[in-house]
Design a protein that fits this description.
alpha+beta; 3-stranded antiparallel sheet; SMI1/KNR4-like
């Protein structure tokens, strides 16, 4: 199970999710589809992740289907068109402007969760493309593994002013201190 902080967004329908897949030209893995149908994105109560190699990662908040909202998955991906590798869909972000992506390409990479580092983007003038620049790191092999691996933030490691300066971090902190959440079954 995963505990989610409520964002106030409404749930979405199977039809809306199908339209989302059609928009991106992809088929999402079933675990991600189930998550979106139940939660429609949001902020996990345990929001920290590690990379597949065990090194510390960051935090995640998931995009929602909510046109016009700054956390909308379509609008967030439009802002990164031509910047993400082909077939990758950004499903959330961290507190530093990096993206959490799901690989929707058919083949060995399908369904893998990647971290996209915005500070090391492709430079077209140097002949680089999003597929060749190597600015993605593997987080997990499946969305289900990604959710299972989420853990608490270490509050002692937060920089001074972090919660006041970042509304998403502040919401996460409030979720930890006074949870308003619901449960998602595995």
């Amino acid at each position: 199970m995963i505990e989610m902080y409520t964002t106030g967004e409404t749930t979405i329908t199977e039809s809306q999710l199908n339209d989302l897949e059609k928009y991106f030209g992809v088929k999402f893995p079933q675990a991600y589809r189930d998550f979106m149908l139940i939660a429609n994105g949001g902020i996990p109560l345990h929001c920290c992740f590690n990379f597949k190699d065990g090194t510390d990662g960051s935090t995640v908040s998931f995009y929602t289907v909510s046109p016009g909202n700054r956390r909308d998955i379509v609008g967030s991906n439009k802002a990164r068109e031509q910047r993400l590798p082909r077939g990758f869909v950004s499903i959330g972000d961290d507190d530093n402007g990096n993206e959490i992506c799901i690989d929707c390409n058919e083949g060995q990479g399908y369904g893998k969760i990647h971290f996209w580092d915005h500070e090391n983007e492709a430079d077209a003038a140097q002949g680089e493309t999003p597929e060749t620049v190597g600015n993605t790191l593997l987080i997990d092999d499946t969305f289900a593994e990604f959710l299972e691996g989420l853990h608490d933030v270490e509050l002692l490691d937060l920089p001074k002013g972090y919660l006041e300066d970042d509304p998403i971090a502040g919401a996460r902190f409030k979720a930890l201190m006074k949870p308003e959440h619901y449960w998602l079954d595995d």
